[in-house]
C-alpha cells in the first residue's frame, strides 16, 4: 500500500468536495479549484473525511494512488490557507516594484535579443497576487495564490529572469536557497 495514498484527508469546516466523472472540484473560503484525476481511482467522502482507493496493485495504479491523494490534499490546503513563495533580489541596483497589476523587475539587463531593455514587466496571472517589499534588505517579492502548481510556476518564471550566478551570487533566488559559490580567477604568479 502507498503510505501517502492510504492516508485520509480531513476536510476542514467550510470545504466542499465534489467528484464527477474523473473531475474533482474543491470549494473553500479562498476560492475554487478543479483538477482532472484518473477515473481508475475511487474517491470517497464520508463525514468530513476523504479517502482515495485504488482498484488493483498494478504498478500504474500504485503510482496514481499517492499522486491523486497528494493533488487533492494540495487543493484542500490551497482553498483554506493558500500558498506563498518568497523570492529575494540580490545585486547592486537590482530592484522590483509593483505598478498596478504588473511586477517590474530592474535586474541589470541592458540588451535583450539586441533590443534595449531596462526592465521586465510580468503581469499577475488570474488567481495570483504579487507583493513587493522594497524597503527591506534584500528586497523581496511574495507570490501568493491558491494553486500550489501555479504559485511555483510563476515564482520560477520570475526567478528565471535573472537566476543567481555562482561567482558573486547576484540575481533572484528563493528565500532560504543556498548558492554554491565558485572561486574567481587566481592571479598570475611570476
Q: Could you tell me the strand content as a percent range? A: 35-45%
CATH superfamily name of the largest domain? Answer: Ribosomal protein L6
The biggest beta sheet reads: 4 strands, antiparallel
Number of domains: 2
**Average pLDDT:** 90
* Span of the ends, CA to CA: 67 Å
Category from helices, strands and their pairing: alpha+beta
The count of helical stretches stands at: 2
What is the string of SSEs from the N terminus onward?
EEEEEEHEEEEEEEEHE
CATH architecture of the largest domain: Alpha-Beta Complex
Q: Tell me the overall shape.
A: elongated
Helix proportion range: 10-25%
Unreliable runs: none
Q: What's the CATH C level of the largest domain?
A: Alpha Beta
Structure commentary:
- With 190 residues, the protein is an alpha+beta fold.
- The protein folds into 2 domains: 72 residues, Ribosomal protein L6 (Outer Surface Protein A, domain 3, Alpha-Beta Complex); 92 residues, Ribosomal protein L6 (Outer Surface Protein A, domain 3, Alpha-Beta Complex).
- The chain is built from 2 helices and 15 strands.
- The chain has a 4-stranded antiparallel beta sheet with strand order 13-14-7-15, with helices on one face.
- The N and C termini lie far apart (67 Å).
Structure keywords:
Outer Surface Protein A, domain 3; 2 domains; single chain; elongated; 15 strands; four-stranded antiparallel beta sheet; 190 residues
Furnish the topology, listing elements before pairings.
Elements: E1 9-10, E2 16-20, E3 23-28, E4 31-36, E5 42-46, E6 49-53, H1 59-80, E7 83-90, E8 95-99, E9 102-106, E10 111-112, E11 115-116, E12 120-123, E13 128-133, E14 140-145, H2 148-160, E15 171-174
Antiparallel strand pairs: 1-6, 2-3, 3-4, 5-6, 7-14, 7-15, 8-9, 9-12, 10-11, 13-14
